[in-house]
Amino acid sequence: MKFFVDTADVAEIKDLASTGLLDGVTTNPSLVAKTGRDFIEVLKEICDIVPGPVSAEVTALDHATMVTEGRRLAKVADNIAVKAPLTPDGLKACRALTDDGIQVNVTLCFSPAQALLAAKAGAAFVSPFVGRLDDIAIDGLGLISEIMEIYNAYPEITTEVLVASVRHPIHVVEAAKMGAHVATIPPGVLRAMFKHPLTDRGLDAFLNDWAKTGQSILKQPVAGDSDDRAPERRRA
Ligand code: E4P
Questions:
Q1: Of the candidates 198, 185, 203, 196, the residue with the CA atom closest to the CA atom of residue 16
Q2: Rounded to the nearest whole angstrom, what is the distance from the C-alpha of residue 218 to the centroid of ligand 1?
Q3: Cα–chain-centroid distance for residue 95?
Q4: Cα(126)–Cα(157) distance, rounded to whole angstroms?
Q5: Per-residue DSSP letter, 107
Q6: What domains, with CATH codes, occur in the chain?
Q7: Which residues are bridge partners to 2 per DSSP?
Q8: Which pLDDT value is given to residue 225?
Q9: To the nearest 10°, the Cα dihedral for 121, 126, 132, 136?
Q10: Separation CA 21–CA 152 (nearest Å)
Q11: Alpha-carbon distances, residue 182 vs 6, 81, 105, 190 (angstroms)
């Protein structure tokens, strides 16, 4: 499963990209508004940090303007994926941009029928919003399962299921079990995925026992030694 981070906050993206675990980024108009920054400037910075797809959303409602906006956004960097809403105009724009060779992420998908349409329109990604469905007491992960069943029945479908509106690690884990291709994860949820109290407790115990030995890996000689130790250790 590919991991995208769902934010337009450049500092967060830098920090998470340094883990080597990020495959892409998704933004939306609300996330960009939250930064208070210039959209294109932010996009350029993000595209320089993460080589994978960076979703940038059009804001027009008619397909002709969506296509114009999409083509402009695609010029920002080679790794831009244009985001278009799941409306008739959005899907028309998706087809036109896809025919231009631009990756399109069809967003705001809330039903299997909509996901089927996005695939027909040639979308590179479809974004079903699990959390927003859960919020209204409809099973968001159930939607992922239905879309995966449909897409798997047609090997010619190349659209990737990008699980969006993720609220907690279980959304990611369950979607991964279903074989969803991508999850776009808010920074806080991605950080929560690292956490387990037994990891912390186990590490404490290991380090306490290690301290009792009085040894240091950096101070002990190994074959081919000399310059692969930290500078302060080399002098030791
Ligand atoms: C997806 O690309 C959207 O940006 C995002 O996942 C929406 O999530 P929200 O429901 O938390 O706003």
A1: 185
A2: 45
A3: 23
A4: 12
A5: E
A6: 2-192 (3.20.20.70), 197-235 (no CATH)
A7: 182
A8: 86
A9: 50
A10: 26
A11: 12, 14, 12, 13
Task: State whether the beta carbon of 105 lies less than 6 angstroms from ligand 1.
Answer: no
Annotated catalytic residue within 14, 44, 75, 83? 83
CA-nearest residue for atom 5, ligand 1, is 165
**How high is the pLDDT of residue 207?**
98
For residue range 85-125, what is the model confidence (pLDDT) as tens digits?
Answer: 999 999 999 999 999 999 999 999 999 999 999 999 999 99
CB of 7 shorter than 6 A to ligand 1 = no
CB 87 within 8 A of CB 57: no
Q: What is the pTM of this model?
A: 0.93
Closest CA to 14 of 42, 44, 50: 50
Q: Which two tokens stand for residue 198?
A: 């037994």
Q: How many angstroms separate the alpha carbon of residue 179 from the centre of ligand 1? A: 20
Tokens of 165: 């509106």
Q: What are phi and psi of 97, to 5 degrees?
A: -70, -40
Query: Residues 12, 19: contact at Cβ < 8 Å?
Result: no
Cβ of 165 below 6 Å from ligand 1: yes
Kindly state the helix (H) or strand (E) to which residue 26 belongs, with its residue range: strand 24-26
Q: What per-residue confidence (pLDDT) applies to 226?
A: 72
Helices and strands (DSSP H and E) totals, the chain = 12, 8
Q: Which of 2, 3, 27, 28 to mutate to test the pocket of ligand 1 (most atoms within 8 A of CB)?
A: 28
